[in-house]
Amino acid sequence: MDAVGVVVNPIAGMGGRVGLKGTDDALEEARERGAEPRAPDRAREALEALARRKPGLTVYAAGGEMGETEAREAGFDPEVLTDPGEETTAEDTREAVRAFVERGVDLVCFVGGDGTAVDVAEVLTDHGGETPMLGVPAGVKVYSSVFAVSPGEAGRIAAEFDRIEPREVNDIDEAAYREGNVRSELRAIVPVPVAEGLQSNKQLAGGSVEALAAGFAAEVETDTCYVFGPGSTVGAIEDELGFAGSPLGVDVWRDGEVLASDASEEGILEVLDSCERTVIVVSPIGGQGFVFGRGNHQISPAVIERAERVEVVASDEKLDGLEVLRVDIDDREISEGLRGWRRVRTGRFTTRLIELV
Q1: Fewest C-beta in 10 Å: which of 72, 102, 224, 226?
Q2: What does the pLDDT look like over 273-285, one tens digit per residue?
Q3: Which residues pair with 81 in a beta bridge?
């Protein structure tokens, strides 16, 4: 690879920790809730990994925080092709990708979520669909299979890939998502670098989790706050405990009482101030294996740090489709502390060991 185009959606992922499950049409509300940008740091991490492997690479970038700033901080001297406004838009992303194609880049590397992936894919498809794209995960919704599993892996893949294959770009309706409904839509098929560090599409595992839920509920401990992550598997446990959880949000429960429902990071931490013991309960995303960093940004490093332990639950069918479990959070020390072999509850009495990498 001789040249790469870099475009960053600087507001991607801002809605996650504050409980908005996305930033589309909700940027002002995210800011009012105290959301802070995370995409620039993730872009910088990916570009630093790329710079270590290809320091002399030609880099084209969108202006300012849409790529230029992060590329310079990573050690590149990018050629800036566009000048986005102070309040960036999806059209700024599309304009940058059009400029990259005109310069004949070998790869478009974008930083964002599924919405940004759609913007990039649509432009590339309109221009023949031959230029490959690679995503650095920074959004709340990361359902598409065009993303690396982490920013560092994105940089490595961009530097080392030697072949491409068609992959899916999917997006969901954020307004419906906030109401607890997942409506996924295939938006494009695009060429993507092939490497082990790419994530799969999200897959929904079938099969009953009733026994798992019953076994977990029978063993809940008194005077313990349980932070329940999103998903149908964890939802089955909440049903067994006798309350209707938020299917795509995070709830906190203790001794029969819901302390917080569909809570933001701030809301969770506020509740945990009154908890002597805390247990986090999560289920990996089917087909991908992420237990943190995809769809549950409210369970932030600060929340994880407060927990006595993390319980992972999943059906056998879901685990059969996974080689490993993964985390993708913005705290290297906590990520390292989570890694290792995990005992995952799969039934009323059964567990399986799987490595979290």
Answers
A1: 102
A2: 999 999 999 999 9
A3: none
- Rounded-to-integer distance, Cα 185 and Cα 141, Å: 13
CA distance 91 to 119: 8
pTM above 0.85, yes or no: no
Name the helix (H) or strand (E) containing 54: none
356 in helix, strand or coil?
strand
CA distance 296 to 300: 8
Please give the angle made by the CA atoms of 178, 183 and 185, to the nearest 5 degrees: 130
Please name the residue ranges forming H helices in the chain. 27-32, 39-53, 68-73, 90-102, 114-126, 151-160, 174-178, 210-218, 232-241, 265-272, 301-306, 316-320, 332-338
Rounded Cα gap, residues 61 and 80, in angstroms: 5
Model confidence pLDDT, tens digit, residues 239-254: 999 999 988 899 999 9
Q: What DSSP line would sit under 168-205, residue for residue?
A: EEEEE-HHHHHTT---EEEEEEEEEE--TTBPPPP---
Tokens coding 109: 């590397």
